[in-house]
Amino acid sequence: MIDIKLLNYLESYITENRKQRFNSVLSNRTRHFTVATEDVYQLHNTSAVMRTCDVFGVQELSIIEERNVKKIDREIAMGAQKWVDLNRFNAVKDCISYMKNEGYQIVATTPHKNDCLLQDFDISKKSCFFFGRETEGLSQDVISAADCFLKIPMVGFTESLNISVSAAIILQHVTDRLRSSEIAWQLTEEERNIKKLDWIKKTIHSYDRIVEHYYTRN
Predict the structure, then answer these.
(1) Which segments of 56-117 does DSSP mark as H helices, in order?
(2) How many CB atoms lie within 10 A of CB 74?
(3) Phi and psi (nearest 5°) for 34?
(4) What pTM did the predictor assign?
(5) Is residue 106 within 8 Å of 97, Cβ to Cβ?
(6) CATH architecture group of domain 30-185
(7) Which among 66, 67, 138, 202 is placed 20 to 30 Å from 90, CA to CA?
């Protein structure tokens, strides 16, 4: 359990505008949907997906790094790395297992004979959207474990989109529908408080000294 009195004390070290901003953003955060990228080669693509998650209120992003291990491009992520929770996995199967244990259905974003068009996607189920490598797409491990195959309708000659563009289209669509539904998609109060404390820690200077001072006084 989080120390609410400490949280309230720390809030006095941020501006009222920042406090209201945190509360506003947290009210739109969700873990009902999450995203996983599989061995994306171009660093800017993963960074752009993280930025997209932040923009559309998806709190967690998972990165699978069996082949490609790189750091988030801070310029492209535009600070999103401070606000979005990042999970790293060294194996596809570990990520799939984690998602299933957390109650997520595995959604493979790739054309498939049994695929679902974006507008027909069932938003009521907790879902992890998997995006694959730029040239090869998703691995057979994801395809075999998938509970659903999702595709974006296309009517041109081009048969695929850049991963960051695909993520943006899908997340904008499903989160917009989610917020218009009666599904309990928001973070719990405890989750919001934990996240707020984390954001405050990343915002104020001398965080450790301030916390030490608080506990010395109390």
Answers:
(1) 74-77, 80-83, 92-101
(2) 12
(3) -145, 170
(4) 0.90
(5) no
(6) 3-Layer(aba) Sandwich (3.40)
(7) 202
pLDDT at 166: 92
Least Cα distance to 107 among 94, 90, 126, 134 occurs for 126
Could you read off the pLDDT of 100-150 as tens digits, one per residue? 999 999 999 987 767 899 999 999 999 999 998 766 789 999 999 999 999
Q: Within 10 A of 45 (CB to CB), how many other CB atoms are there?
A: 21
In whole angstroms, what is the distance from residue 52 CA to residue 5 CA? 33
**Domain ranges for the chain:** 1-27+191-218, 30-185
Mode of pairing for the β-strands spanning 33-38 and 148-151: unpaired
- Residues 68 and 14: their CA atoms lie apart, in Å, by 38
pLDDT tens, residue by residue, 42-53? 667 788 899 999
